[in-house]
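Hey, resending since the last one bounced:
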Amino acid sequence: MTVRDGVVTAVGPTPGAGAIPADTQVLVGREGGADALDDLAVGDRVQVREKLESAGKPKLTFAVGGAPILRDGAPLAGLDTKTAAVRSAAGVSPDGRTVYLVALAGRAPASAGFTIAELADLMRSVGADAAVNLDGGGSSTVAVREPGQAAATARNSPSDGTERLVANGIGIFVGKH
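The structure tokens again:
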């Protein structure tokens, strides 16, 4: 759904593509969120509000979206065990001091990738207590800028064969100590 100046301007069954104008909001609903959006039509007036809540927790300094696959050191129930694909994930240690990032290499004859259940097991095996499945395949590019280099270079082979333009990323920056 597209909203401009508080008015629904477009509704569709699938997310669109391309740049989003600065004065426009795009809403994508899944499950209960999709049900709420189904009640709206082009021309309806709406008010969109955003809020992040962190009850009793430290102020957020970083957020990333993904589908939870591991919580309290255990894979979540109902994870897919059949569909192998190129995947990426982010996880955190039980004490919250270590972040684990995994980007599986592009498709190769020797490997079709991991199922979501296998990805959860991998994240647990490296020490993650909680983890999310991120967008994978061609959306996963690991880029590193070594000391003295002017630019970062890709270190993996995205499954599409080239880097895909995506709207988000996770950056790790190391300063001098």
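The chain is about 10% helix and 20% strand.

Sorry for the duplicate.
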